[in-house]
Amino acid sequence: MTEEFNPLALENQLCFPLYACARKVVGMYTPYFKPLGITYTQYIVFMVLWQQDGISVHALGEKLYLDSGTLTPLLKKMEAAGYVRRERSKDDERVTIIYLTDEGRAMREKCEQIPLQMGRCFPMDIEEAMQLRTLLHKLLESDSCSIHREEAK
């Protein structure tokens, strides 16, 4: 007797291994971030700002796939810690621009070896890692489910 495909079986889901891997990977960063006093989310904010200092909160959120409800408290904490400063845009005061402070720029050197150290933790070669990265970005950039979001309401 052939088993019928069960669409609700956990082992048949794409979402579950993605979720579990994301949690596992973020957790693997903790030993590196704890001595620095930062979180994973702060780290990815730093990475954007190290490439593009002086970015709007909106643009930062788009790059990180985070909404302003998540970003605003995070940026306030980073500002209180002395890593960033928030300024209203001179062109449009409704827009908040995020700038690194000297302490925020100095954090870059402290984080420089983390990607290399983390790369050693994954059981795949560089080609596999690049393929996975490409596939994950394909999922992130896909808008094909926007119709389904409306139907679910």
Features:
single chain; 153 residues; mainly alpha; three-stranded antiparallel sheet
Topology:
Blueprint: H1 15-33, H2 40-51, E1 55-56, H3 57-64, H4 68-80, E2 84-88, E3 96-100, H5 102-111, H6 114-119, H7 126-141, H8 146-152
Antiparallel strand pairs: 1-3, 2-3
Describe the structure.
There is one protein chain. The protein is mainly α and about 150 residues long. It has a domain at about 10-110: Arc Repressor Mutant, subunit A, CATH 1.10.10.10. Helix content is about 60%, strand content about 10%. It has 8 helices and 3 strands; from the N terminus they run H-H-E-H-H-E-E-H-H-H-H. The protein has a 3-stranded antiparallel beta sheet with strand order 1-3-2. The radius of gyration is 19 Å and the shape is globular. The N and C termini lie far apart (about 40 Å).
Give helix % range. Answer: 55-70%
Roughly what fraction of the amino acids lie in strands? 5-15%
Class from secondary-structure proportions: mainly alpha
**CATH top level assignment of the domain at 10-110:** Mainly Alpha
Structure annotation, total helices: 8
